[in-house]
Write a structure and sequence with these properties.
The chain is α/β, with parallel strands linked by helices and 327 residues long. 35% of the residues lie in helices and 20% in strands.
Length: 327
Amino acid sequence: MPRVDGLSQLDAMPPPRRNARGKKPPPRQDRLSQRALFFRRVRKSIKPGLWVLGLGAFCVVGAELFRSLPAPHQQKTAVSAPAPAPVVTHNRFGLAAILADLGLRITNVEVSGADNLAPAALNAAIGVKPGDPIMGFSLSALQARVAQLGPVQSVTVERILPGTLLVHVTERDALAIWQTTGHGMPQFVLIDKNGNVIAGQSAAEAKRREPSLLLLSGADAPNFAAALLAELKAAPVVLKHVVAAQRVDGLRWNLILKDQTVVKLPSTNEAAAINQLAVLQASMQLLDRPVEDIDLRQPGRLVVRPYAPAADAGKAADGKTTEPAHE
């Protein structure tokens, strides 16, 4: 019976206790100091203000960039007035000055297409230089000043941050040289395809650059120059002999050839007369012959007047004899 008693003793024993080491104690929490708590509260209160300040600065910079966008290209079709003195304001306490202090200053001004513009006039019209704040001026105002220079047909201006300013100029092509009168003296000016005077360019220098430029005379010559040049370009064999053209009585043209021969064109259908000259040049080299004038004023009729001999020319000057025309 001792065995039975032993089992009874085992049943009466309490269950074994679990190992207390199996459960980890909670981590110890260190209490923040008063200083750390203060700075944590300051950071939390400043963060929304920084977001508002950054958003405001972004809006201001965006508005400034939008305001300074270049205006649409404007083609120049009339005689330009002298360019006004550029006005560039640099507000020391403004946004441009602040951005300049951050590094947004002009380091390079690149100009292209201005082959015939005087450098001094162009620089004065641009009005800014390396070292100036790149946000301290209006692109549209700069574009308007450069566009008022005589040889300029159009201009585009671009600001590339942080420090590059691009100025691209398209100059007006000279069509011809017009001889006019100013203060009782002959003057020579350049005109474009629209008949407008190109101010600020030397006709003599343009002639050296482009020897093919024709000399035109007559009060209304610029108004009809483009049509005449187009008709002559359609007959290159004639054009290469022509050095000048004279507008007569506002009705028609006289062509002056290299050997001083005068070709009298009709008042109507001058293109057909020029084409007739081209045919005659191809068949008999008429424009290479030493004649005084070639008259095409009457439709279907050609009158060629040769030079008078020296002796007869003196008599003709005295009114005693004249040289008949040859048809």
